[in-house]
Design brief:
The protein is mostly helical. The chain has five helices and three strands, in the order αααααβββ. Helices cover 69% and strands 8% of the residues. The longest helix has 38 residues. The C terminus is likely disordered.
């Protein structure tokens, strides 16, 4: 008897869940997304109302400069040097990442196009995980184990 009651309750819950599912048309979905974006935009505009971002950046730069001068006056040169090196290392890493992405993507797309790939973008996406930029600026294609099997020369784009 209790098994029958359990089955009836389970069926009722399933029906209730299925009746709550709703499908949306593309127009309804677009409207919902647009409303959500507008709400978020208003929230950020409210927070940033009356603030000029260029002035804020200038103010933050002045604050950093003043902090640096105070540290110089106190003789905290090790701390200054450490912060400067960290800041420059972050900049260098960002530039290296952008350079690698540009060179690797360019080399893969070019090689795939030259070899008449049906979809060069797809070939590039598939091979991107198996490539790296060497110290001399050439793009290397690697095996799964990380050993180099083919080097794509950046100038000649040969496989």
């Amino acid at each position: 008897m209790s098994d029958e009651i359990m089955e009836t309750e389970t069926e009722t819950e399933t029906v209730a869940i299925q009746s709550q599912d709703k499908t949306f048309t593309q127009d309804e979905l677009d409207r919902i997304v647009a409303d959500r974006i507008a709400r978020e935009q208003r929230k950020f505009e409210k927070k940033l109302s009356g603030i000029d971002l260029d002035d804020a950046r200038d103010l933050m730069q002045k604050r950093e400069d003043a902090d640096l001068e105070r540290q110089k006056e106190r003789g905290e040169f090790d701390n200054i040097l450490k912060k400067t090196v960290e800041k420059k290392d972050l900049e260098i890493s960002a530039y290296k990442s952008k350079l690698q992405q540009t060179l690797v993507d360019g080399a893969l797309l070019s090689a795939a196009s030259q070899n008449n790939a049906v979809n060069p973008d797809q070939v590039s996406t598939l091979l991107k995980g198996y490539t790296r930029l060497s110290d001399d600026g050439s793009v290397e294609v690697l095996e799964c184990q990380g050993t180099m099997i083919v080097v794509i020369c950046y100038q000649s784009m040969t496989w």
